[in-house]
Write a structure and sequence with these properties.
single chain, 313 residues, 11-stranded mixed sheet, 24% helix, globular, disordered C terminus
Length: 313
């Protein structure tokens, strides 16, 4: 799945934003590259990565300790100087790309442990070309860091301050307590789609989110286990109905959320620092991990808390 994602990102950037791949605003991509079949791209990426992995893995495995996992990062970079040589020659188009592989070790954090909880804050707009992974996003998201409140370990993206799309590095999922009186849920019950009082929500890819590998794994598991899922961007205005939230990516795997912060006014994100923003909070309390029940607490200073106890799918 990861090789497919890498290959897909390469094709997307070639067709829509080649400057992100070749680090050049004036590069001209040969038609032979753009028109290459997806299966050929998959084979190309696999062979390039395999070649680097064969050289790197023996050294890493010698030093790998028990209980550690391997974190493998692959970077494919376009070689703009080689583009003109490739015109009309599909047989050597792999020369247009350089592949860098970094292999390190890490120990995945345990899910559900209070100390490992994620603390999130909505601080900026969605990514350009969100359906592809590209390294320039590391530079682009630096401007969001000025709005990162203390203790927050992931930043969320939204185009309007209400519909939350994804994190800078993760996909977001919310367990939503459905309103059985809503038109949507009446229709669901009428067509026997679901009669369960909760559903899992995550923003659809068409809204501008990365179709992460772990995101798809979660959706596949929910489909197999008949867990109700709706691909819709979680609405901050409906946060009282949120029972639980978690984020996913290939390194964090699944990380439960303790708190989500969002600005009281979307315009306030023009502020210079997080201190200049008035924040609202959605607080999750992971206590019994069994039954769902919610209660509203009063305002605490400049932050409004909504507390939820005992969250689980």
């Amino acid at each position: 799945m990861h090789m497919s994602r890498l290959s897909s990102s390469l094709r997307i950037l070639l067709n829509s934003n080649p400057e992100l791949l070749f680090n050049s605003k004036t590069c001209r991509v040969p038609i032979s590259l753009v028109s290459t079949k997806p299966t050929i791209w998959d084979s190309l990426v696999q062979s390039l990565v395999d070649d680097s992995m064969r050289k790197a893995l023996p050294f890493v495995l010698e030093q790998k300790r028990s209980g550690e996992e391997l974190a493998i990062t692959c970077l494919v970079s376009g070689n703009v100087d080689s583009l003109e040589e490739l015109e009309g020659d599909e047989g050597i188009f792999c020369k247009a790309f350089d592949v860098y592989v970094h292999v390190g070790s890490y120990v995945p954090a345990l899910f559900g442990i209070h100390e490992n909880a994620a603390r999130l804050a909505v601080v900026g707009r969605g990514r350009r070309t969100a359906n592809a992974k590209y390294s320039d996003w590391v530079r682009q998201r630096k401007q969001l860091e000025k709005l990162r409140p203390p203790s927050v370990n992931e930043l969320l993206l939204s185009n309007n301050g209400n519909q939350i799309l994804e994190g800078c590095l993760t996909n977001l999922f919310v367990v939503f307590r459905k309103d059985v009186n809503s038109d949507y849920d009446k229709a669901s019950q009428r067509y026997n789609e679901s009669t369960v009082s909760i559903e899992l929500q995550t923003a659809p890819v068409r809204d501008g989110v990365l179709p992460g590998v772990l995101r798809q794994v979660i959706l596949d598991i929910c489909s197999r286990e008949k867990i109700p899922v709706r691909e819709i961007a979680p609405s901050w205005l409906e946060r009282e109905m949120w029972l639980e939230a978690f984020i996913t990516n290939s390194l964090r795997l699944i990380q439960h959320v303790e708190v989500i912060q969002a600005p009281s006014s979307w315009d306030s994100l023009e502020a210079k620092t997080w201190r200049d923003v008035k924040w609202e909070e959605k607080l999750f309390e992971h206590c019994s991990w069994k039954n769902h029940y919610a209660h509203r607490e009063g305002d605490h200073g400049n932050v409004n808390h909504i507390s939820v106890s005992g969250c689980s799918i």
